[in-house]
Amino acid sequence: MPRIALATYDPGTEPSKDADLPLLVRALTDAGAQAEARHWDDPAADWGGYDLVVLRSTWDYSWRAAEFGAWVDRVGALTRLANPAPVVRWNADKRYLGDLAAAGVPTVPTRYVPPGEPACLPAGEEFVIKPTSGAGARFAARYTPAEHDTAVQHLARMHAEGLTAMVQPYMPRIDVGGERALQFFGGRLLHASRKGAVLAPGTPYDADKVAHPRLEPWQPTEAELAVAEKALAVVPGAPGLLYARVDLVDGDDGEPRLMELELVEPNLFLWLHPDSLPRVTQAILAAAGDPA
Q1: Is this model's pTM higher than 0.85 or not?
Q2: What is the end-to-end Cα distance of the chain in Å, rounded?
Q3: Bridging pattern class, strands 243-250 and 256-262
Q4: What is the C-alpha separation between 33 and 139, in angstroms, rounded?
Q5: pLDDT per residue as tens digits for the range 264-281
Q6: Which residues, including other chains, have CB under 8 Å from residue 49's CB and lie 6 or more apart?
Q7: Residue 105 in contact with residue 258, Cβ under 8 Å?
Q8: Do the Cβ atoms of 276 and 270 come closer than 8 Å?
Q9: Is the peptide bond before 83 cis (omega within 30 degrees of 0)?
Q10: CA-to-CA separations, 83 to 7, 91, 186, 263, in angstroms, rounded
């Protein structure tokens, strides 16, 4: 009977935003595992006592990147961690997009602006600013060239907090075709979803955003699958991946581009794809039963 921990965040007095977590704990328990959800920062947790720790919804990690990174390394040394600690470390900093682009993966063009570097923002086109360490559109905003001064203030705020900024062109086709999320589990496509644009014009960078607006099931195209598989093939330590979510948008030519590759704590959207629950359960059980 494998012991499995599903690592999540502590919501405090608020309800958890992970609607899938109780479903997954129940499914694993019904399948014969000793499964439980544990807050990743719980000081009483005996992580070495589990056969497998699955990162599920550690959705506050980007606010505490150094602490989370140290925790990932510690747990990865104590037991099997999914995804593996080196993969999580690499993927927690969105400068990984540069690695994927260098390997030939079609990505959204990205420039990085660390603290101390001049802004040098795009002229003549809409653009997006967001941090290299972030989740849920935290500190992300969309700007027109006329909003240059506001964007500079945004960068200054991020730099004051020690954050490196990403500057990307706004991909206007997202307003029509949305963003597609291709979910992989156990090395195979699990399901896909499509959502609307997260960043509305004029929304302040420090405002709360709806992370997955108008989410609906999606049938991925051959071109989308090809980009997703190419991205996954060049991930350092790819054979050790239990799960992955590949987020895609269309470029000006209508071809898919990688927006983000989520290997740390992607929302699984099992509530939208209930038929995927058995496959996720079996993949987790298989990972828990593999020899370390």
Answers
A1: yes
A2: 16
A3: antiparallel
A4: 39
A5: 999 999 999 999 999 999
A6: 3, 79
A7: yes
A8: yes
A9: yes
A10: 11, 10, 11, 7
pLDDT in tens, 55-68: 999 999 988 889 99
Number of other residues whose CB lies within 10 A of the CB of residue 278: 11
Residue with tokens 């390997």: 103
For residue 266, give both structure tokens: 């992607």
Q: Please, which residues bridge with residue 248 across strands?
A: 180, 258
Query: 195 near 181, Cβ under 8 Å?
Result: yes
Q: Over the stretch 231-241, which tens digit does the pLDDT of each residue have? A: 999 998 777 89
- Cα–Cα distance list, 252 to 67, 171, 197 (Å): 39, 7, 16
Cβ 262 vs Cβ 245: under 8 Å: yes
106: amino acid identity, one letter = P
List, edge to edge, every strand of the sheet that includes 256-262.
216-217, 188-195, 179-185, 243-250, 256-262
What's the average model confidence in pLDDT over 254-262?
A: 96
Q: Is the pLDDT of residue 292 over 50?
A: no
Tokens representing 84? 């593996």
Rounded to 5 degrees, what are φ and ψ at 45? -70, 135
Say if residues 144 and 203 touch (Cβ distance below 8 Å). Answer: no
Average pLDDT on 26-55 reads 97
Beginning with the edge strand found earlier in the chain, give each strand of the sheet holding 111-113 in spatial order: 111-113, 165-169, 127-131, 141-143
- pLDDT confidence bin for 136, thresholds 50/70/90: low
Amino acid at 81: L
Question: Among all chains, which residue has been given the structure tokens 């706004």?
Answer: 170
Integer Cα distance of 243 and 241 in angstroms: 6
User: In the chain, what's the furthest Cα-to-Cα distance?
Assistant: 61
Q: Position 6: which residue type?
A: L
